[in-house]
Amino acid sequence: MKATTTATAPGPQPEPLRFFGTTWVGHDNGYGARRAGVAAGSLLAAAAGCFVLRFAYEGMAVADVGTFVNFLVLIMFSVCSAIAFRRAWEGFTRRHDPASQSSMRGLMTIGFVGVLLAYFFRSLTEAPGEKLHREEYEAAREQYAKRTSRRTGNPSRKKKKA
Fold first, then answer.
1. What pLDDT shows up at residue 162?
2. How far apart, in whole angstroms, are the C-alpha atoms of residue 42 and residue 35?
């Protein structure tokens, strides 16, 4: 069996995004279709999640747990979804530290509808996380270019300012 090697350009390589791979760099290979698919998929998943939550809420009504408990559950899912939306939206433009990410995992799971809606709204303008990855990739390319640029001339022969 012959091993194939792919020639990659020297320097930093773009980090792949979920559902997009590295198509976000040049907006090629079906980038627009992928964005439309992510938007439609996240909106459908959010609607399905709301449908499931509705069944859970009706199950609590059948169990006759009381108005107060129903109200608390409704508030809990609303607040968790709002916080999860904001946190996911911020995560598209800056990286969260791993400690806070792991501590918020439960809240993000409860507020999954907010995360899905954040994916939907972000995918209307760009791939979710594209701006953050593009900034990091451009900065890494600039640093690489500075490190690998050749010096011209002897620095000791530079003209001194009078």
1. 58
2. 11
